[in-house]
Specification:
Elements: H1 2-6, E1 30-35, H2 46-58, E2 60-71, E3 85-90, E4 93-101, E5 106-115, E6 118-127, H3 131-140, E7 144-149, E8 163-169
Parallel strand pairs: 1-2
Antiparallel strand pairs: 2-8, 3-4, 4-5, 5-6, 7-8
This protein binds S-adenosylmethionine.
């Protein structure tokens, strides 16, 4: 990703640090930290996710914002007897989520993708996180929820929302 970024016009103006989002620090304080595209779920235990919030807060000015975009999973809507939920079924890509451990909130996303006529299998392990749990992680890091939308167009967040854009302020 860093290499792709470096090829874009104006990239030289952006400093890149490659590291663990739980612990990596960069110099300076910022008005905005953002963590999008479900990336909080890549940290697969609660302690680690709490660390990510603390690390984000450590980089913020007082009054600065931490924006988190993350899916809201409906694991309880998997019908009894079904192994998982199909979330995409295109000609060249099938994706299935399995909810593997409800105690540790662990799930896997399984992808079968056709590339150059060959079928590739790829599975990622994630920790899903409740909206209210995100809010408590923010509080532990001296931040408060100021907005929760159902998407980037400021859609209303409802029980049916499949994703959220949560905005926390330090
Ligand atoms: C869903 S992708 C999002 C990529 C990118 N942030 C974007 O929005 O396009 C999550 C990324 O987080 C990376 N990742 C997983 N655990 C991490 C960690 N502890 N610290 C930093 N990055 C991590 C993964 O390798 C993956 O590239």
């Amino acid at each position: 990703m860093a290499e792709v970024l470096r090829k874009k016009p104006g990239a030289e103006a952006i400093d890149v640090a490659i590291g663990d989002m739980r612990t990596t620090r960069v110099d300076g304080k910022f008005k905005l930290v953002y963590l999008v595209w479900n990336s909080i779920m890549n940290v697969t235990n609660q302690d680690g996710q709490v660390e990510v919030f603390a690390n984000a807060a450590a980089h913020l000015d007082e009054g600065g914002y931490f924006v988190v975009e993350v899916a809201v999973h409906k694991q309880d809507r998997t019908p009894a007897g079904d192994l998982g939920q199909v979330f995409v079924m295109d000609d060249d890509h099938v994706g299935i989520d399995t909810f593997d451990d409800p105690v540790l909130q662990l799930m896997s996303s399984h992808h079968w993708t056709e590339i150059n006529g060959h079928l590739h299998r790829d599975t990622g392990r994630f920790r899903y996180v409740w909206p209210s749990e995100l809010d408590l992680m923010a509080r532990l890091a001296s931040m408060r929820l100021v907005n929760r939308w159902g998407g980037w167009q400021e859609e209303v967040f409802t029980a049916e929302s499949e994703s959220q854009v949560a905005v926390y302020q330090k």
